[in-house]
Amino acid sequence: MFFDRATNFKGVGIGEVLISESGQYYAASTKIRFSCTNNMAEYEACILGIRMAVNMDIKELLVIGDSDLLIHQVQEEWSTKTAQILLYLHCVKELCRKFIKIELKHIPRFPKDFADALATLPSMIQHLEKNYIDPTKVGIRDQHAYCFHMNKEPYGKPWYHDIKKFLPTQEYPKNATNGQKRALGRLTNHFFLNSEVLYRRTQI
Q1: Cα distances (Å, whole numbers) of residue 20 to 38, 53, 60
Q2: Rounded Cα–Cα distance for residues 158 and 146 (Å)
Q3: What is the C-alpha separation between 39 and 73, in angstroms, rounded?
Q4: Which domain covers residue 163, as residue numbers?
Q5: How many Cβ atoms sit within 10 Å of the Cβ of residue 126?
Q6: Which helix (H) or strand (E) holds 139?
Q7: Which of 30, 66, 99, 108 is the most exposed place for a label (fewest CB within 10 A)?
Q8: pLDDT single digits (tens) 32-45
């Protein structure tokens, strides 16, 4: 589980992401609307992430964060006399007891882009009236949007049909307008054929 907080002039946000052994991501982000320090925000993020794992009935958990203070305090390597931090610390320890195995690691420069983005999003929202916003889906797209739109043309052929036909013959479709011919010519520059398989050229 990765966790992080983001603080800026608009507010404070926290983000947590659980990653299963199979690579499935479970993410959450929260805007904090009460006054808190950076350390308190780190604890908020850590606690919410661990609670996510508890609610999912996870029994073994690796918690990774870049807050050395939090990690060392939970591991009882560093002490604190701050009343609010003591309350957070007690909460984390109580949650840790719900696992068969839980380990907390401090990694200063871990790959936390996802958790950082989740924390930054709510921190930028100034006037969040609702206590909850429906989940936002984050997708990964390997093709241009028009490829999905043109996946099947009205006559049942795939979007790349004309490209694949034009590359070996350099022949335009019948009844193609001059504009369509120019567009097809430009588009085919980004593809090549190899054993009847169409590949998209990439720039390195």
Answers
A1: 28, 10, 11
A2: 12
A3: 11
A4: 145-200
A5: 9
A6: none
A7: 108
A8: 888 888 899 999 99
